[in-house]
Amino acid sequence: MRYYFELSQFLWAFSIFFVDMAVIRSVASPLNCQTTCVCASDIISCPKKELSFVPSGLPNYTAVLDLSHNIISRLRAEWAPEPLKRLHTLVLSHNSISFVSSEAFLLTPQLRYLDLSCNKLNSLEENVFSALHRLEVLLLFQNQIERIDRTAFDDITLLQKIYLSHNRVTRFPLELVKDGEKLPELVLLDLSSNRLKNLPVHQLKILPAWLSNGIYLHGNPLTCDCDLYGLFWNWHVRQLASVMDFQEELLCQLYSQPRPPSQTTNVFLLNRSDGLNCSVVREAGMEAYLGETVILNCDSKQKSVNQVWVTPSNEWVQAQPNRSAGNRSISVLSDGSLQIRPIQVEDRGTYTCYAQGELLNETLYVTLTVFNFTQHVHQDTLNTAYTTLVGCIASVILVLIYLYLTPCRCWCRPGNRGQGEDRESIHSSVLSATPNHETTSDKAALSRHVAFLEPPGDLHGQNGKLKPNGSQEVPVIKGSPLQPQTPNRKLSDPGSISSVFSDTPIVV
Fold first, then answer.
1. Homologous superfamily of the 31-269 domain (CATH)
2. How far apart are CA 145 and CA 107, in angstroms?
3. What are the residue boundaries of the structural domains of the chain, listed by start?
4. How far apart are CA 2 and CA 334, in angstroms?
5. Do 55 and 30 contact (CB within 8 A), yes or no?
6. Could you give the CA distance from residue 206 to residue 215 in angstroms, rounded to a whole number?
7. Backbone φ, ψ for residue 370 (5° rounding)
8. Where are the transmembrane segments (predicted)?
């Protein structure tokens, strides 16, 4: 019994020793250029060797290291115990890497090309690539990346291309392209075939064309709307590669009214009636006011190209010291934009920019509209219009007060009856249609008189109405040379026209 117990202890100790030796051997496995790797001067290639760790003893002159198609699972700082100052290319694709330490690249300061594609990364942690100050190309496609820390790409200002396709990204990393501050050299950002549903459309619209040309968004479950249609239509008009090369794969989810069921459609079909009936977007020109400084952008699809401008008056402007004419100057800035100061009315029109690069030449047009007043005067005009509107409203209110709130005269008050009758002596007037026979025809045609008639004494109490029996006589105008020759007529006769209680004198 004791014999079996001692034997089991011996076997246990031997197995532990064997495992430890295997681990030590696997961790400290030296570089073998005969059986494990291929060494060609400064290139070391070790693909498909089932390596779990990076070989030790890498020479310090290594420039290219290929460890693809192995089973490496973690990348810590210990993988490079000695500085590799000449290493510029590191290939770690098709492994099982699920963790990368932020200190993993401290001893590889000259690395320019890093391939971590086809691994098992699920996030990009804080400052994970910040030590790679000279990195230019980063391949991260075909991983399981869901989260990208906002500081993951800090301090790598020379980075030009990031490949993040075929991951699980749900948020567009706007911090990588906004204002061009974090990654000023970035020309390609591949986010295709992820899980993006919404895009910062308004921020993407203002990006320069040379950056939008390399933002790939196809293969995402985007939500259909007219803003999205306008963004891609604008890129299509500019013939940007990110849209032209993958036009058929720019799809979006069109939700109906109940929301759960959705339909997948091409973004460029949203202008149809069976889509969202989005209107075609057209590029707007630029507007300016007198005296302003205007900068016209030559929004080329390429970066670092030579720009030559042609003004509406067929004047050629190239990048050279400012050409001044008195207090005016027109010049091409360092980024290729055309600056005009101060702007004048004759500067309006269509400006042409010829962008000349190594890959292609472009011709761009910018339409400038100049208003014949300063922006300050424009604001005063708005204030004047507002004041006029307020004045019109006040006038309408005063008219309504005059019409409906004027106090009426009250003759029934004691002591005011006679006074009221004296002031308002005319309460009825008669316009006679009978021609006057005492004068000549010409004098009768030209004579016009205002008649103020005194009401009869017995008219009071009738509420301004005439007697229905027609017994009331027409009063005679005293002192008038135009006395009628006919007998007195009743007010009820059809030959006369009466006006009762009119405040306006009657012309006869």
1. Ribonuclease Inhibitor (3.80.10.10)
2. 25
3. 31-269, 286-372, 425-508
4. 89
5. yes
6. 13
7. -115, 120
8. 385-405
E-assigned strand segments in 326-387: 328-332, 338-341, 349-356, 361-371
Average pLDDT rounded to a whole number, residues 296-308:
83
453-463, pLDDT tens digit by residue?
A: 455 555 444 44
| CA torsion, ordered 481, 487, 493, 497, to nearest 10 deg | 0
Q: Which three-class secondary structure state does DSSP give residue 241? A: helix
* Distance (Å, whole) CA 384 – CA 377: 10
Q: Which two tokens stand for residue 134?
A: 């000279």
Q: Which residue has the tokens 């991260």?
A: 140
Which DSSP string do the residues of 375-387 spell out, in sequence order?
HHHHHHHHHHHHH
Torsion of CA 333, 336, 340, 341, to 10 degrees: -20
**Identity at 191, one-letter amino acid code:** L
Residues 6+ apart with CB under 8 A from 246: 192, 216, 218, 219
In whole angstroms, give the CA distance from residue 218 to residue 190: 9
Cα angle, residue 167 at apex, residues 165 and 172 outer, rounded to 5°: 75
> For residue 353, which of 304, 300, 313 has the smallest C-alpha distance?
300
Which three-class secondary structure state does DSSP give residue 201?
Answer: helix
pLDDT tens readout for residues 40-69: 999 999 999 999 999 999 999 999 999 999
Residue 243 DSSP one-character state = H
* Strand, coil or helix: 282: coil
The confidence score (pLDDT) of residue 190 equals 98
The one-letter code for the residue type at 488 is N
- Pairing between β-strand 428-432 and β-strand 496-500 as defined by DSSP bridges: antiparallel
Average pLDDT over residues 85-114: 96
Report the predicted TM-score, pTM, of the whole model to 2 decimal places: 0.64
Taking domain 286-372, whether its CATH number is 2.60.40.10 is answered by: yes
Q: First and final CA of the chain: distance in angstroms?
A: 152
Mean pLDDT calculated for residue range 15-36: 60
Q: CA 239, CA 299: separation in Å to the nearest integer?
A: 12
Of 425, 424, 419, 440, nearest to 475 by C-alpha is: 425
160-204 residue pLDDT tens: 999 999 999 999 999 999 887 899 999 999 999 999 999 999 999
